[in-house]
Amino acid sequence: MSSPSRPVTQLSKSDVLSGLFASWDALDRLLAGLSEEQWATSTPLPGWDVRAVVSHMIGTESALMGVATPDVDLDVSALDHVRNEFGATNERWVRYLSSEPGESLRQRFLAVTGDRRKRLSEMSDDEWNAPTLTPAGPDSYGRFMRVRVFDCWMHEHDIRDGLGRPATDAELDGSAARLALDEMAASMGYVVGKLGKAPDGSRVAIELTGPLARTIRVVVEGRGQVVDDFGGLEPTATIRLDALAFARLAGGRVASAPVELGGDEAVGARIVEHLNYVI
User: Fold this and answer.
1) Global pTM value
2) Are the beta carbons of 235 and 264 closer than 8 angstroms?
3) Angle (CA) 44 47 277, round 5°
4) Helix (H), strand (E) at residue 214
5) Residue 261: strand, helix, or coil
6) Which residues pair with 216 in a beta bridge?
7) What 3-state class would DSSP assign to 208?
8) The CATH number of domain 179-273 is 3.40.190.10
9) What residue spans define the domains of the chain?
10) What pLDDT, in 10s, does the model give residues 30-47?
11) CATH number for the segment(s) 13-166
12) pLDDT in tens, 65-119
């Protein structure tokens, strides 16, 4: 494909793959030994139980290996929770694997992610940095794989929420969580400036708390842009919430944790209302 008009994101292959593989390992540990009843447990994603979430991840990694989307015996686009063709593709995999026993599905997940580990590990730096289409728009293949870390990490917590097995601080402490938040942070310029319509001159600080604490800073000068600091100036609006709650809101999940607003609260509230930027 032709080069994207914006700069291509250059990311460390070893760092991103370390996070992606760690995310797959965490999912395997979480799925090991689940009963069929637990595989059928609902998750925060409408219409999806644990089996459906894992089927979706199998489908995505299979597609990245060149496997065609399966045909199914249902018009999945008519389902209430399917909003676009991307969602319909996901749902075809979910439907295709819906009768698979839980442990067999786990073995499928291990097989396809094993194949992906090998292919990704053998990928050259030129391939890793080459521009491609990603869920975040045209960017490097490395950026695409950071999006995969985000997606798999989010789905780990969807499954945890469904099963009532929240992650411990130790389970949150790792490269997968860091990279997932890095990926979300990279989209906050768009969220603050485009979706949240913060006015020119805004300096918005999103203060994440808990084990994954960090501050994401966005300035708006024509458009929103993530920055390291505000050059000694105070933020015009602050949004303070738990990092996992932030991730849930960004992914369109329901988050029960409180959100504290400071400065221009109207701007902050509008940004929070539009935090859900994920397809």
Assistant:
1) 0.92
2) no
3) 55
4) strand 214-221
5) strand
6) 206
7) strand
8) no
9) 13-166, 179-273
10) 999 999 999 999 999 988
11) 1.20.120.450
12) 999 888 767 656 655 565 666 656 778 898 889 899 999 999 999 999 999 999 9
